[in-house]
What does this fold into?
Amino acid sequence: MSAEREGWGRRPRYDLVIMDAPATGHGLAFLKVPLVASEAVPVGPIGANARRILALLRDTERTALVLVAIPEEMAVVEAAEFHRLAKEDIGIEARAIVLNACHERRFDSAQEAEVLRLIAEGAGGRLPGGVPLSGALEAARRHLRRAKLARFYRNWLRKRLPLPMVTLPYL
It folds into this structure.
């Protein structure tokens, strides 16, 4: 007998399986397949297997739906919509959300103000290594904006989704 699972009643080979589903619209359609199949085929092996899969997806002891989004408007709005539709249409409750690629705050308030002041004054010159100061300031300004957006969308999600949240840094 092989180490792989051979039917519903045997112990699975793996303790944990992580599936990266498609984006919101396709991911929801993917999760609806067992529901639709179980309704379309009320008897026989196809309907029975669809009902087993649906029961597995709804079993909070064995399955956890974790939403993943990046800190951008479309992604967080879709995550909130996916959360609602998975619960209402399929009966699957999300257990957590991951906010991926978050720019972390690298400057304190005084440093942020200094970057913005230098940009407003049109500061010029070169940094060691010949890097133009204007380019470095522009990169710092973009970073400030991305870090601010990450904080904004983290707070937006926390207000709308009553889920534990993990934030991962932008690498």
User: Anything to note?
Assistant: Residues 34 and 137 are 53 Å apart (CA to CA). The radius of gyration is 23 Å.
